[in-house]
Write a structure and sequence with these properties.
The protein has 166 residues and is an alpha+beta fold. It contains four helices and nine strands; from the N terminus they run H-E-E-E-E-H-E-E-E-E-E-H-H. It has a five-stranded mixed sheet, covered by helices on one side. A hairpin with a 4-residue loop joins strand 6 (108-110) and strand 7.
Length: 166
């Protein structure tokens, strides 16, 4: 399918699909979030996710990279991202959205009663990474329930929770 209306092409088209996938899962979970404007990802994150107990940051990478044999996905990292994530006192999560189809028109199918998005996402916390790449585990499938775990970063057993109670 070709379109005369397409204005976002290449990596930006793929990236927007990943952000929209992430926003859909956040909306499903009823979790507040804010996306930074394009060009404002100078902190090596694309936005914040807010819980009643605190905020985490998220970097979203999107592509069609095939999984490793164990189902993990290897994501290359830039040195400036690693430095910025290490400096952040808030938890920082990298989310890899894997588009299961190679071309944009095939990412979504519109049926009479529903729409299917051919994508899935996996995540990993990245504040302490030091390598040039990270393997995002298959077990860390991003679902609406994921955000319960991320919010737990601020419960009474974490440093954040203890500091908040002083």
């Amino acid at each position: 399918m070709t379109s005369n209306v397409q204005s976002i092409v290449g990596p930006d088209h793929i990236g927007r699909m990943g952000v929209m996938y992430m926003r859909s899962v956040l909306t499903q979970a009823g979790v507040a979030h804010e996306e930074f404007s394009p060009g404002e990802d100078y902190l090596a994150v694309d936005g914040n996710i807010s819980f009643a107990t605190g905020t985490v940051r998220v970097q979203i990478k999107t592509g069609t990279t095939k999984p490793n044999k164990d189902g993990s996905i290897t994501v290359p990292l830039r040195d400036d991202w690693i430095r910025k994530w290490a400096l952040c006192t808030l938890p920082v999560f990298l989310v890899y959205v894997r588009l299961e189809r190679d071309v944009g028109p095939e990412w979504l199918e519109h049926h009479d009663q529903h729409t299917v998005m051919y994508a899935r996402a996996q995540w990993i916390r990245v504040n302490q990474v030091t390598a040039k790449s990270v393997r995002v585990p298959r077990a860390n499938r991003l679902t609406a329930d994921t955000f319960n775990d991320w919010a737990a970063e601020f419960d009474g057993t974490s440093a954040w929770g203890k500091a908040a109670r002083l």
